[in-house]
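Morning F.,

Quick status update on the modeling queue. The single chain you submitted on Monday has been processed. Sequence for confirmation:
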Amino acid sequence: CMSNQTAVAHLSLKIFLLLVKKFKNQLKAEIEVFVLNIFLRVLESPNSPFEQKVLVLEALRALCADPQMLTQLFLNYDCDFDAVNLYKDIVYHVTRISAKTCAQPNSNTVTKKVADQELELSRTGLEVLVVILRSFLKALNLPGGDDAFESDGSSSLSLLRQNLKLDPSMDGDANDENMSPDKDRDLSGPSTPLKDDASETQLERDTSALEIVNAFDKKRTAQQNFEIGKVKFTLSLKSGLNFFIDNGFLKLDAQDMARFLHENSETLDKTQIGEVLGKEPDAAFVKVDGADPENGGKGFFLRVLHHYGERMDFTGLMFDDGIRLFLSGFRLPGEAQKIDRIMEKFAECFTRQNPDVFPSADTAFILGFSVIMLNTDLHNPSIKPERRMTIESFIRNNKGIADGSDLPEEYISGIFNRIKENPFSLKEDDEAREKQKAESTKDMFDSLFVFEGPTLFGTNAEEKKREKFRKEREEMMSASEQLFKKRPPKGSRRSVHEPSTRLDRVPPADVVKPMFDVTWGPLIGTLSQVLESTTNDTIIALCLSGFVYSIRLSSHSDMSLARNTFVNSLAKFTTLGSIKHMKSKNIECIRTLLSVAIIDGEHLGESWSPILQCISQLGRLHLFASGLDSG
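Structure tokens below.
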């Protein structure tokens, strides 16, 4: 799917979609890796080519066009405590790329070609969002579910869809029968058992729907609480840990806290994790005399450090790579005593797992501390180059540390050279430096060159982007391979709905409400932003379709907040009652609002208020016009 050959990429996407449709239960982990690590990374990368982004959007469009496939994504991932929110992530990335319609051609920064590509991506992204809404309408048997986009059949995207048939809904599937849950009933039996079977089926459906909503609500509440806990933990170590304990994320137990910090090291504040691990040996979490060190008493944080180290696997690693792995989950504190305690634990674990490397843990501890000092000395910008440690001085500093003997010089030299070439640093620090470097370089060239063409070094911007994306693509492939290798054994994941066949039997209609609840927040922001800024008729039509479908879904699903928000937003775009100049798109908004009132009026409830205000303002304008005509 990442191939530079368009035909290969098309065929790969077709195979992927068919695999998702036919083997989604068997390939749950693989689909997650593929969508998250390839599809969504291509969409968010500023260096990925326009053609790749279009292909990804087309694949997502095909995936979302089938209500059964779309709702299965939500059930298998967003309702599973141990899985990512795959559907939510797809909506987030598609809404972000759809909102990029504000770029205008500019001689300095944005060319007409780039602006046209941004517009095309926005249109395609909006189509994906509208397709999602149509799938919801189709699942609920509401008007609009079978609508189609107007197309002359000659555009590149239309030809892509026709020739490759990326839309999996074109293929028959046994799962489609779930759109009508009563199709699988045996019609050959007597009438009374049929009624019993129907009532049992309906009861089973209602129970499944309730479980789905409960599972989704529990997961969302847990994630919201985790985000609150993250903020509290960043501001106050103890307050944050107490919040996590109170909300069931961990127990007041040293081993469980070590597990929690290790598993969430990529999301929690790494400076605070380092402070937890570097606490004084007699520090306690609770002020209770005689409390067990494992349960918050004196020495609790030292026990956390010990358990944290025990979770790491250093077997077979080079010594400096072991340190690099150990320090990847937290920021090393600045105090020497804290560094001393942390490195002592590392040395103990590394020596136990690699007994043939050093004669004792003391040797590993002394060398580890020396390596930390070397890393600081070589890569601290405040130290002048001529005053930095040399390889000779590093070898000299570590003489006699192996129980009175010397470690091999080539071993010490190898560590020195690797640290010099690749310093210890956290991933987020590297990313921040790369971003800052890229921005400074861009600003420099923007100020130097106000024309389009080659740079000083004969390499234009497009070539630089292609080179960056080649590197990103290699990273994606490598990371995906590693994730496939590390995927959990079959059946190891804990899901709220254990039997996959039971998930397959859940009708899409039962899942529409929680799915739309995830969708409408980012959707209203994108539709409003795009409709405000665009003058493109096709994009305006897509935005208005999004408003109509969203109002219909929220009205029929008793989601008053969403319904009121969409109706009020659409009413504001009519510009009735304001002094803004009325454009053609505002007139289309008036027509759309009146159409909503006519078709979905019975379900609008209190949302009639802004509609009636618009009708009143229209009537007033008509009176003004009539008065002017008569005068």
